[in-house]
TrEMBL record:
Residues annotated as domain PP4R3 EVH1-like: 7-101
Biased composition (Acidic residues): 752-762
Protein name (record): Protein phosphatase 4 regulatory subunit 3C
Species: Pipistrellus kuhlii
Gene3D superfamilies: Pleckstrin-homology domain (PH domain)/Phosphotyrosine-binding domain (PTB)
Alphabetical list of PANTHER family matching this protein: ATP SYNTHASE GAMMA-RELATED, PROTEIN PPP4R3C
Any Gene Ontology CC annotation: protein phosphatase 4 complex
Length: 775
């Protein structure tokens, strides 16, 4: 059989570790002789030496796979394989083998292979086409693109392709073809380059990224990614990066390596964010090598800047200088903001050291100076920097604010400047205000105060906040719901009432944010917020918002009241009853009609909670004040069940009082009987008998009834709060009030017992479901 160029093959052998080794490539021939039989001979195409001579024996198992592969086993753990370039030459060789063994060449197996050999061969030999990549030529770009695309069919092919591509010269030659394609207008070639380069990224190998992101290659990489086949016209990313995205040194950088690393990181981040597709949720680990590359670059930049003794001090010195123009200050802030975002990638210990350095350099006083300026963009950047500090260590912020108060800087406290920025947010959706509200919650969260050095620090800070800051937060609320003149010292000026309207959407957005913060305070600052609400009669103003046309704001107001009632604090309960604060809730509920919506459900849940938790004073107040208004509602049994519970407990109270008086009467009668017995005994001895008049029994029963009636009347009396000259609410009690758990409630009409709660639940079980109403 003569040698032919189309019989080029690659030769593999199975080693002792059951891995396939590549022995080389060459041309295969079938050499036949009458005395010795048929031999398969392969000569190396590079050296011309013989690398295989295998006799075809009748009992040797052969197998043809995928039309281009012949595998056989000469002995245990000694497998051989020939991978042909085309199927025709493979079939010719297979026919020769079948003739020797007397087999039908249309069958792909002459005898069964060893199990291990059959399992291992597919995955290994499917990568034989990746051992040598095609030359970097315009005519081969399609072949290279198909090769890269096919590599993602199995992990083994991906690893093999990445290993081959680590040859730096191959990738560099590929990237140089970009200019050749552009110069001749070879659009198809440019599309192939896009496919190739994007595929190399998704191989996810750091060694390949080092080549792609080298100073020599990175702009060509961006150029290849411009030609996405999904778009008719290429995007001019290189033009943008070289002409529009100019690098500004706010402070001169003297280290060449630092400058290069900053340029590289910016461009790599641009590739990740703009040029490469966003990985789906299922591909979280996709492009992990790229993310790691950016992470390590940022760490290196931060460490290099920290090690420069002059760089950061010059930044803060210029930021504090009130004579510099706003453009320069804006550039400095943008740099500091990006520097802070880079710091998020640091390990905790390194991050602590960095923020400690920034604090010592005066970053908080610097932010305070910036927040005093009249430039929204600059102040927004300052808020972003402030957010990094708050999220890292809110205790440092609290300590700074307390030091400000001690220095008598009440008129320009940093936190009040932050609050003003929240209230004056110009974004229609109030995104900035929402962000600042989150920062305030983080600062005010008691969970973040546990690790403070002194135990009294928590109460000290909260005292400061409610004294110096809370009145600024509620300014828009009071301006919307009250015509009263505000106390002096708030942050928004004298024309505050003209800025807010109850039905304005942006006002409603802001008030919703403020109510969310107040709700957080009610939950976490029980003592401080309680007496602030009572002193300012704040809940009354909040419930005025129940008249708003914006349902989300109505729900925010209702949520605050629900949170207050959920505390089951009798001081709050007394305040609600005395102020008749259920009235706006009931009015909003009635105005909503029978529409089955969130407002309807929220109000019903509120009253259900009062009944189920047996909040006695509120249940009595609601039934006595509003039951006649609500008794027509029959699609839920909430109000009827409240009435049933109220009547049952009232009757139990009456029975208890009656039993108590009867017991007292019996005790008195017993005492009288003892005296009478002695008198009767004496009379009997004298021959006389005594008789008790019937009128006395009637008189005793009448006295008992009158005493019960007087007791009930006295219990129905309610003390009315008095408003002081300052506008605060003052409560008076006829006897000492109980504690927060309601152990001795001055407003209590009846004394409920919890013995029959299970009975109530059984009675009310049939009313659990309700019909749906169309809006």
């Amino acid at each position: 059989m003569a040698d032919r160029p189309n019989r080029r093959v690659k030769l593999f052998a199975l080693n002792e570790y059951k891995q396939w080794d590549y022995l080389g490539s060459g041309n295969v021939t079938s050499v036949a002789s009458e005395s010795q039989g048929l031999f398969l001979v392969v000569r190396s195409e590079s050296s011309g030496t013989q690398i295989l001579e295998s006799e075809v024996l009748p009992d040797t198992p052969y197998q043809r796979q995928k039309d281009t592969l012949i595998v056989w086993s000469e002995a245990e753990n000694h497998g051989m394989a020939l991978s042909f370039r085309n199927s025709e030459s493979c079939y010719e060789t297979w026919e020769a083998i079948c003739r020797v063994q007397g087999r039908d060449p249309s069958v792909n197996v002459t005898q069964d292979l060893l199990d291990d050999l059959e399992e291992e061969i597919d995955e290994t030999l499917e990568t034989d086409d990746l051992d040598e990549l095609p030359n970097c030529e315009l005519s081969k770009l399609k072949q290279i693109a198909n090769l890269v695309t096919s590599a993602f069919s199995s992990p083994l092919r991906r690893r093999r392709l990445a290993l081959v591509l680590e040859n730096e010269t191959y990738i560099k030659k590929l990237l140089q073809m970009l200019h050749s394609c552009e110069s001749v207008g070879y659009t198809e070639g440019l599309y192939h380059l896009h496919t190739i380069i994007k595929g190399i990224f998704f191989l996810d190998k750091t060694a390949l990224l080092d080549i792609l992101f080298s100073e020599e290659c990175i702009m060509n990489v961006i150029g290849c990614l411009e030609y996405d086949p999904a778009f008719d016209q290429p995007k001019k990313h290189r033009e943008f990066l070289t002409q529009n995205a100019n690098f500004k040194e706010v402070i001169p950088i003297t280290t060449c390596k630092l400058r290069q690393r900053i340029h590289q990181t910016y461009r790599v981040q641009y590739i990740q964010d703009i040029l490469l597709p966003t990985p789906s949720v299922l591909d979280e680990n996709c492009l992990s090598a790229l993310k790691t590359f950016i992470f390590l670059n940022k760490m290196e930049i931060i460490h290099m800047l920290q090690s420069d003794d002059k760089f950061l001090p010059q930044i803060f010195e210029q930021l504090k200088d009130k004579t510099i123009d706003n453009d320069k200050r804006r550039e400095l802030l943008f740099f500091l903001k990006e520097f802070g975002s880079f710091a998020q990638v640091l390990k905790p210990r390194s991050k602590d050291a960095l923020f400690k350095t920034l604090t010592q350099m005066g970053i908080l006083p610097t932010i305070k100076v910036i927040m005093s300026l009249d430039d929204y963009q600059i102040k927004s950047s300052a808020i972003d920097i402030f957010a990094h500090l708050v999220e890292h260590n809110p205790s440092v912020i609290r300590e700074f604010l307390l030091e400000e108060e001690q220095q008598n800087e009440k008129g320009s406290l940093l936190i009040n400047l932050i609050i003003k920025q929240m209230i004056c947010d110009t974004d229609p959706e109030k995104a900035g205000a929402l962000h600042i509200m989150g920062l305030l919650r983080f600062i005010l969260d008691p969970e973040n105060m546990i690790a403070m050095p002194q135990k009294c620090e928590r109460s000290k800070f909260l005292n400061f906040f409610y004294k110096q800051c809370m009145h600024n937060i509620i300014v828009p609320l009071l301006a919307t719901t009250s015509e009263d003149i505000f106390e002096e010292g708030h942050i928004l000026g004298d024309d505050i009432n003209s800025r807010y309207c109850l039905h304005d959407y942006q006002t409603a957005q802001l008030l919703g944010i403020i109510l969310e913060l107040l709700t957080f305070c009610v939950q976490h600052h029980t003592y401080y917020i309680k007496y602030y609400i009572l002193r300012k009669d704040l809940l009354r103003n909040v419930l005025i918002l129940m008249k708003s046309r914006h349902t989300f704001l109505v729900l925010c107001a209702l949520r605050l009241m629900r949170r207050i009632i959920g505390l089951k604090d009798e001081v709050y309960n007394c305040y609600i009853i005395q102020g008749n604060l259920f009235e706006p809730v009931v009015n909003a509920f009635l105005n909503n009609g029978t529409r089955y919506n969130m407002l309807n459900s929220a109000v019903i849940e509120l009253f259900d909670y009062i009944r189920e938790e047996n909040i006695k004073s509120l249940l009595t107040h609601v039934v006595e004040k509003f039951y006649k208004t609500l008794e027509w509602i029959d699609y839920v049994q909430t109000f009827k069940n409240m009435k049933i519970k109220y009547e049952r407990e009232k009757e139990r109270k009456r029975q208890k009082s009656l039993n108590s008086l009867q017991n007292s009467k019996r005790a008195r009668d017993l005492e009288k009987n003892k005296v009478s017995y002695k008198g009767d005994k004496e009379n009997l001895e004298e021959g006389h008998s005594g008789m008790r008049p019937m009128e006395s029994d009637f008189q005793d029963d009448y006295d008992i009834s009158m005493e019960i009636e007087n007791t009930t009347k006295n219990e129905d009396k309610v003390n009315v709060p008095k408003r002081t000259s300052s506008g605060d609410i003052k409560f008076t009690y006829s006897h000492s009030a109980g504690d927060a758990n309601g152990t001795d409630n001055p407003m209590r009409l009846v004394d409920y017992s919890d013995d029959d709660e299970e009975e109530d639940k059984e009675d009310e079980a049939k009313f659990r479901k309700r019909p749906h109403f169309n809006p």
